[in-house]
Design a protein that fits this description.
single chain, 364 residues, mainly beta, Thrombin, subunit H, Methylamine Dehydrogenase, Chain H, 2 domains, 4-stranded antiparallel sheet, 27 strands, globular
């Protein structure tokens, strides 16, 4: 008795426990499980550090020789997010998600809070020394004394025409910005489309480097640093509260008084001044150092717009130099340094009156 092919097929499949019959299906390949980035491991030591930035009292980053570190608990613990041969000189964040790291030979960018860092762009034939972003896309950079603008998160940069050199920038909001270079301060009120010189500091000579920070469209602080000799450096700090029309001196180095003869304020920061940070129109913090005083490091603070200055030595940094400083608010601040081949991170919760070492974590 002959059986049809279909009947034979059904019998064979039934014996094999298969419930269907028909053309053989193409073999399928199982989808690989999703691959996730390894969780960052806690670090208990760091290389020499040169940059720090906190976007809140809890979340911040520190960076330096070949590393970017992250903390989500106010600096109590740290994880390493990035490792390479690049030395990071500066950090900038538009928010907790979008950040930039300026290295000596490259610009890095993150769009996921530092979980990953990718190479961004730089101006042609120039290396950026610092950047400032007002949003995830709109930013400003300084390279070799020239101002540049980016509208795509730092992928491309275009040169901005200004009168004179630019050393640093600061934006109070998307429209109102400040720039400083040499002894000049410039302003923009149209999102950087035009820049106008508003003031020239009363200093002699041309060898000045200007760092500017701002808290609003009307209030800005600028620190001018000049030449150094005899274990001291010429410097003078100013503040404006009327959009740059008028400036008042806050402090100066008295040994070099001939470099700013019309500045008569007696207050000093230290033998050397800078870097500095501000949190509101009345509050600023200036790091200082004295190489001839056993390499002591200090913090000079004003909370009343410069009317009074408080000077505190930072004992934990004795023998080293403070390289960067940031404050999330008037009480919570962090500073970084390098001592030999080791990085240091200190934190304050009382506006700089006392500092605690948080990395390396002190021995219990």
């Amino acid at each position: 008795m002959r059986h049809s092919p279909l009947l034979l097929c059904l019998l064979i499949l039934a014996l094999a426990g298969v419930v269907a019959c028909g053309p053989a299906a193409a073999p399928t390949q199982a989808s690989p499980p999703p691959v996730s980035a390894p969780a960052p491991k806690p670090v208990h030591a760091a290389p020499p550090l040169s940059a720090v930035r906190f976007v809140s009292a809890q979340e911040g980053w520190a960076a330096g020789q070949g590393a970017i570190l992250h903390s989500a608990d106010g600096g109590k613990t740290w994880t390493q997010q990035y490792s390479s041969d690049a030395t990071i000189a500066a950090l900038a964040f538009a928010d907790a998600t979008h950040g930039w790291a300026v290295a000596q030979d490259r610009l890095l960018r993150t769009t996921d809070g530092g979980q990953s860092w990718q190479a961004a762009g730089e101006p042609k034939d120039s290396a950026l020394a610092g950047v400032e972003f007002t949003s995830a896309s709109q930013g400003w950079g300084v390279a070799s004394g020239t101002l540049y603008q980016s509208g795509d998160g730092g992928n491309t940069w275009s040169k901005v025409t200004t009168q004179g050199r630019v050393d640093s920038t600061c934006f109070a909001d998307a429209s109102n910005g400040w720039a400083a270079g040499g002894s000049w301060v410039l302003r923009t009120t149209d999102a950087g489309h035009t820049w106008k010189p508003t003031w020239r500091a009363p200093v002699e000579g041309e060898e000045w480097h200007a760092t500017i920070h701002c808290n609003s469209a009307s209030t800005a602080w600028v620190l001018l640093q000049g030449s150094a000799m005899m274990s001291q450096q010429s410097y003078v700090a100013f503040r404006s509260t009327d959009g740059g029309a008028h400036w008042g001196a806050l402090a100066r180095e008295s040994y070099f008084s001939s470099a700013y003869p019309s500045v008569t304020v007696e207050a000093q920061i230290d033998a050397y001044a800078g870097p500095f940070a501000t949190t509101d129109p009345a509050t600023a913090y200036f790091l200082g150092s004295c190489p001839a005083c056993d390499m002591s490091v200090s913090l000079t603070t004003t909370t009343d717009g410069g009317k009074t200055l408080r000077y505190d030595k930072i004992a934990a940094l004795a023998g080293s130099m403070g390289t960067a400083l940031t404050f999330a608010d008037a009480r919570h601040g962090w500073l970084v340094s390098g001592k030999g081949d080791q990085g240091l991170i200190l934190a304050t919760a009382d506006g700089g009156q006392t500092w605690q070492q948080v990395l390396p974590a002190p021995a219990q």
